[in-house]
Design goal:
Shape: globular
Distance between the termini: 50 Å
CATH superfamily: Quinohemoprotein amine dehydrogenase alpha subunit, domain 2
Strand order of the largest sheet: 1-2-3-4-5-6-7-8
Helix content: 10-25%
Number of helices: 1
CATH class: Mainly Beta
Number of strands: 8
Structural class: mainly beta
Strand content: 35-45%
Radius of gyration: 19 Å
Oligomer: single chain
Number of domains: 1
Order of helices and strands: HEEEEEEEE
Amino acid sequence: MHRLSSGLLITLLLLVIVASGCGAPRDRTGTTVAGSDAPPGSVPDIVGSYVVNGVDPLGAEYSGVLTITPGGASGEYRFEWIVTGSVQEGHGVLTGNQVEVEWKTIDAQRSQSKGQTHYTITDVGELYGTRTVEGYAGEGREAAFPN
């Protein structure tokens, strides 16, 4: 059996630590997106259905479905989330590989909330980013994966 010198062992451990920090973006829920950020001039079509995982600004985890449809003009989209305990709709505008969405709850049984979501689009059509709720400090995180 070969014995590793302490210098070689330390080098190997450092390589493992550095490699574990590299890779795809990760949201606070631990969900990793598979793709890399899409080049701003070559963004995949985002119209479709997605599975959503997120953490709201208060730290509560949620999941559900997001549907994105074309909006009224080029680069505009309509968003509808059906997530744990809520139905929300929004209007988003695409700029490069970023989508800024203004959203609000639409279900009558819940108190009305509104906020913003800022997504980055990956080269495989995933969305990830931050989510704010008006009246609450901080931001949540959300990732959406195409069905």
